[in-house]
Amino acid sequence: MSLDDADAKRTARTKAIILVHFGGYLADRAAWQSFARRSGLLLVEDAAHAPGLPEAGTFGEAAAFSFYGNKNMTTAEGGAIIARDRSLRETIRRARSHGMTSGTRQRLDSRSPDYDVTVLGFNYRMDELRASVGLAQLKRLTERNDIRRRLSLYYRQLLAERCPSVMVPFADPWPSAHHLMPVVLPPATSRQAVIDGLRRNGVQTTVHYPPVHRLTFYKDIYPDCSLPRTEEFARRELTLPLHPRMTPASVELVVNSLATALNAEAPIKVIA
After folding, report:
1. pTM for the complete prediction?
2. Per-residue b/e over 23-52, b at no fewer than 16 CB within 10 Å?
3. What is the pLDDT of residue 108?
4. What digits encode the pLDDT tens for the residues 161-193?
């Protein structure tokens, strides 16, 4: 999301901006804070891709982190929310446990088992086993993020040498937790053919993400929504493997396989 586009789409009904640190690359903190202040909007971060970065969670009112199994640190499922305002944190705590005014432990430790339900709530509590896994993961987060950083740099070097037609989003020194390795394929390329070519070499890939407004639920609600830049990016985006157990040799295999797949896709030039 660009500042200009956000400004153009803002209406009197707009209450907040949700920023996504896509792939682990931080949004421009100063620029978005300034925009939010000028517009009188709340600023919320989707920081699911950016754990371990000191700036993540410092942009606005609150930030959400994900600890799903493919994230930089995991509890297998679940996540965490941080917020500046104490009353907001208390509201979130009530909402995560059925909207109840007290938890099981509080009721067992008190003289009264009574409680009230004050907001529409959910069952989003994290159990102790997942929390212990998360604490063990947290101790290795900095080390693993650094491995991801080095692998990302090697990816960029090899892609520039062997796949020059492939674009890598974000400037190299931009602050990042290096959660994903997204690339943008050349305009005329069949992404599915490239995916199939990589798979034949044992390289698994995925896509982050199909455009939300093109998914059935949202398309039914907003049938006239058009985001041409998002749609073009989503059509050409391909996410290459990136995780702490990879080695430089793994990166070389992926890039060489991508180069082979792209060459197989290149149109044949006929010289008359």
Report:
1. 0.89
2. bbbbbebeebeebbeeeebebbbbbbbbbb
3. 67
4. 999 999 999 987 889 999 999 999 999 999 999
Whether residue 269 is predicted with pLDDT greater than 70 in this model: the reply is no
Mean pLDDT of the chain: 93
- Domain positions in the chain are 141-272
Q: What are phi and psi of 68, to 5 degrees?
A: -60, 165
Strand partners, 46: 20, 64
Between CA 148 and CA 157, with CA 151 as vertex, the angle to 5 degrees is: 140
With beta carbons less than 8 A apart as the criterion, state whether 214 and 231 touch. Answer: yes
Residue 117 has phi, psi (to 5 degrees) of: -115, 115
Give the integer Cα–Cα distance in Å for 174 and 195: 28
CATH code assigned to 141-272: 3.90.1150.10
Q: Which long-range contacts (CB under 8 A, 24 or more apart) does 9-15 make?
A: 10/39, 10/41, 14/39, 14/41, 15/41, 15/42
79-103 pLDDT, tens digit per residue, is 999 999 999 999 999 999 898 887 7
- Given a contact cutoff of 8 angstroms between Cβ atoms, the answer to whether 53 and 26 are in contact is yes
DSSP state of 188: T
